[in-house]
Design brief:
alpha/beta; Uracil-DNA Glycosylase, subunit E; binds uracil
Length: about 190
């Protein structure tokens, strides 16, 4: 097994045994290509994700998968995870203290995967990296955050709420390959 996979497996065990972590639902650690260029980060698992232990497999996830296919990417080509790794009750928004307590694990997960680009899905994930950013103004733009490049995208669940939001979401997905290319170039010249 390669080193990255070993590190991720050990990180998963650390999360499983951390009794201080909030939420008692199933762990949804993340899945995909650990050598990916693009790491997608959502907010927290929903009902289907809790049932299956896999991120973004409900309606929003199906839209994400389909939209990636439209630009020639398979779900297996990217890595997908969430800020908070267990489902909040009744799908409520994650609380600031939940985000804070899961933060050290997400930080390590990002370090291990070391993607070219982090694509945030929705405002919680965007504001985790860019506290002052506004979703409608800043989605579809590329930002440098310390050693990483962050590309905010609307949450696919928001895109499902109407045609305008869907068009905005699809447009940003369409621009994703260019953003990765740009981030790759900037990263290599750092
Ligand atoms: N919404 C999220 O933010 N994450 C998931 O995994 C599913 C729905």
């Amino acid at each position: 097994m390669n080193e990255k996979q070993k590190k991720l497996d050990s990180l998963r065990r650390e999360i499983e045994s951390d009794k201080n972590l909030p939420l008692s639902t199933n762990l949804v650690f993340g899945e995909g290509d650990i050598d990916c260029k693009i790491l997608f980060i959502g907010e927290a698992p929903g009902e289907k994700e809790d049932e299956t232990g896999r991120p973004f497999v409900g309606r929003a996830g199906q839209l994400l998968t389909k939209s990636l296919e439209e630009i020639g990417l398979k779900r297996e080509d990217v890595y997908i995870t969430n800020i908070v790794k267990r489902r909040p009750p009744m799908n409520r928004d994650p609380l600031p203290e939940e985000i804070l307590l899961y933060k050290p694990y997400l930080t390590k997960q990002i370090e291990i995967i070391n993607p070219v680009l982090i694509a945030t899905l929705g405002r919680f994930s965007m504001n985790y990296f860019l506290p002052d950013a506004k979703i409608m103004k800043d989605q579809g733009k590329l930002f440098r955050v310390k050693d990483f490049f962050v590309y905010p995208i609307l949450h696919p669940a928001a895109a499902l709420r109407g045609n305008t939001m869907m068009a905005v979401f699809k447009e940003s997905i369409k621009k994703l390959p260019k953003a990765v290319e740009k981030a790759g170039k900037l990263k290599s010249t750092k």
